[in-house]
Amino acid sequence: MYKEITPNGYGIAIETDEKPLYSAQSEFQKVEILTSKGLGNILTLDDLMMTTVEDEFFYHEMISHIPLCSHPCPESVLVIGGGDGGTVREVLRHKTVKNVELCEIDGLVIEASKQFLPSIAGKLDDSRVKIFVEDAIEYIKDKKGRYDVVLIDSTDPMGPGEGLFTEKFYTNVKESLKEGGIVVAQSESPFANPKEMRMMYRLLHKVFKCVKPYAGPIPTYPGGYWSWAFCTDYTCGANTLAAPEIQDVERAKEIEKNSKLYNCELHKGVFAVPNFVRKISEDA
């Protein structure tokens, strides 16, 4: 049985086999693959839930298609973290994308995902993908004007992911964008992690002219509800609460055809966040 309890005293429980399918200690964290009864294989890092085969689409489609469909022609994309490969897989579904760089600090996550999560990591060997097993804090420093979209698919602000939640890091990410570029970062659970989420949005507001939260369900994350920060200097519009518009409807419709989650109506709807989420994101 896998259990994860939040500091608030609640969490999730999933029936799993008694022994992990895979368990190893990297330089940074414990990497495990668990076998569940109903969710397929599960990736955990330091005993925290990262993804499951059956519900991973909730997270990976949300972090990928909202920003890429909000860009008129995304060609160059950087994924920070995301060593399981799910975000890369979804990015490559956009016919405009010519190259994807994946910067993951822990190579063991990539290796374990390729071996035990092939439906998620199967596109990491695509010819358009370059993998860099490096610290993104250093990697991003000399990449000025390189990317159309940057996706920060990081772990929580602790352990190897802690340094990705700083004003300096977000400034370097912003400078890595081409004109019209977009950044999306996972921004924690507004229910389970409001303190961390509020801290993150305060930093993002210092760096970007436009920061919009969007949110949706993830069944196997504690709290069941997650958020992402949409950041740019170029597509704010007069209404700061409005959803960024789909820039290429034909491409978005093609993505929609083979998506479990994403569609053009959802694209608009996810930005209609509850008041308590809006308050957290605006408390800067």
Summarize the structure.
This protein has helices at residues 56-69, 86-91, 107-116, 118-121, 136-139, 167-175, 194-207, 249-257, 264-269, 275-282, and strands spanning 2-5, 11-14, 22-25, 30-35, 41-45, 48-52, 76-81, 99-103, 129-132, 147-153, 177-186, 210-217, 225-232.
Structure description:
By secondary structure, the chain is of the alpha/beta class. It has ten helices and 13 strands. Strands 9-8-7-10-11-13-12 form a seven-stranded mixed β-sheet, with helices on both faces. The chain has a four-stranded antiparallel β-sheet with strand order 3-4-5-6, covered by helices on one side. A hairpin with a 2-residue loop joins β5 and β6. α6 (167-175) crosses α7 (194-207). The protein is globular and about 50 Å long. The N and C termini lie far apart (40 Å). The relative contact order is 0.15. The mean pLDDT is 93.
